[in-house]
Design goal:
The chain is an alpha/beta fold. It has one domain: TIM Barrel. The strands form three sheets. Strands 4-11-10-9-8-7-6-5 form an eight-stranded parallel sheet. It has a two-stranded antiparallel ribbon with strand order 1-12. The chain has a two-stranded antiparallel sheet with strand order 2-3. α5 packs parallel to α6 and α12 packs across α13. The chain binds ligand FNR. Ligand FNR binds next to α3, β11 and α15.
Length: 388
Amino acid sequence: EIYIKGMLHNITPRVTTDPNKLEKEARKHLGDRSFAYVAGGAGERATMDANRLAFRMWKIIPRMMRENRERDLRTTLFGVTHPSPLIMAPIGVQKIFNPASEPGAAKAAEEVGVPYVMSTASTSTIEEVGKANGGGQRWFQLYWPFDDEITISLLNRAKASGFTVLVVTLDTASLAWRPWDLDNAYLPFVNGEGQEVGHSDPVFRRKFSERNGGKQVEDDIHRAAGEWSADVFSGKAHSWEHLEVLKKNWEGPIVLKGIQHPEDAKLAVQHGMDGIIVSNHGGRQVDGAIGSLDMLPEIVEAVEDKIPVLFDSGIRTGADIIKALCLGAKAVLIGRPWVYGLSIAGKEGVKDVLKGLMADLDQTIGLAGMNGIRDCTKGMVRRVQYPG
Ligand code: FNR
């Protein structure tokens, strides 16, 4: 579609198709603080670099003379077949990027057929996002509160709003040292830009009021945001045994996000989890950590096909998706690229980025001589190191 528009009608795309220009283009649409929040990472961004370098080390080995004009990108996860292996990674506080925010992104997800993972730190309520996503596939990402009553309230609301899979993020016991945000005195939900965030939950609101002499969340949004984040990002860790609370209160699949160590992957299997996401939060948590892709093969081996292994952190192109699939990921989550699309052109921008990635994936799979994602196997990639 983009080729035809360009070559025959001289129409250039609304959002750049060049992954390396996307961030620069988004920069023009964002204030300093919002840009720093999305483009930044932990510490000196060494983990973000490692994520990209890891993709550079793996190379695809193309095959020739294969009849493969019809490529099958369909992907089945937890009994549901999706048109492609793409998933929208959970992203918080989207109102700081574009007024379309979570409802726009969730609608875009429905329109392109990609599962939408709603963040607990959203600037719209669970009910609003569920409605906006309509007939789409939606998953709920939990920043896991220490108060079980609040957790259960969030889970019940997510269930009632049609969310089917629970994604529990484990790598954010507290927020990392993120200089780009610290230099801007920036934490979007404490600075009051994301009024709805987790503290829109009715159980949280009741407890807030009880603790604060009848004060409502709206009376002191900063304090509410502070109390909410002080609980969820307190630095305390939940125990593996505590997963029972989630299992008891969520009938659908539960997926742990933020796994980087094969031993943790094994623990996830032992504790009856339904899937894991190999992720380092896009390099936003532990600075100096290994590139997420580098841990994927060992984790896939450790899991022995008992549960699906999903992947994120650093994916920017169709080739990157192929590499992750060849190394054993069943599906991939995309983070910053679609946030840049949202920043540039709202809902349509999200769609442009996702459709672009799907087209790139389809094209590259074809050129590499594969018939679809079922041909993405370990033998199609090799790890190399070129000098310099
Ligand atoms: C995130 N991420 C994230 N993860 C999560 O579990 N809950 C959240 O609320 C957020 N919020 C969030 C905001 C922003 C601005 C970014 C960039 C990231 C992490 C996200 O889900 C995913 O793991 C990474 O973004 C994947 O890496 P790439 O694709 O951005 O390199």
